[in-house]
């Protein structure tokens, strides 16, 4: 078996100097960890005992050589199939990164929130729901459930999930999260959907506020 590649990227130590929890943020297609570590900078003072990590995806982006991708966008193939193949390939890389993080910090899945934006949100849901030990929570921003027909047979844990999406998203339409919500609920997952009005493929302030409230709830702060 091929050993998954090792990820690297920005890390923001806890303001208190002692990590009691971690938030791992997976960026979108063509971006890098610096894009989402800014969320950690925004949250750091509110969650002083939390380590924030935003790894770069494993592949240089085919559409932007200055960014990274979790998997390629194959516009000539069936989009759903392309996402499934890509997510299946990238999931072990994400899992390996998480396992290394837990080994290095002494933290556990139950002390970790996994979040992502766009393609990174797809990976957070795909990899996070297949971990044998439940995460503290998952935050999906502008994402969707890849291959929902397979999830029921492959789900291994059921952490609470927050879905955030802009109603004017023309890259990953809001239907992605609207369809995901009942799928997750039917599988016994505590899931919520926040839709930001007048928002495209981005995280609006009210979406950020919803994510902050979710972190406070899950981290007990």
Verbal overview:
This protein has 221 residues and is α/β, with parallel strands linked by helices. It has one domain: Rossmann fold, CATH 3.40.50.1820. Helices cover 37% and strands 18% of the residues. It has a seven-stranded mixed sheet with strand order 1-3-2-6-7-8-9, sandwiched between helices. It has a two-stranded antiparallel sheet with strand order 4-5. β4 and β5 form a beta hairpin. The longest helix has 27 residues. The N and C termini lie far apart (42 Å).
Compact overview of the structure:
The protein has about 220 residues and is α/β, with parallel strands linked by helices. The chain has helices spanning about 35-45, 80-105, 120-130, 150-155, 175-185, 205-220; strands at about 10, 20-25, 50-55, 60, 70, 110-115, 135-140, 160-165, 190-195.
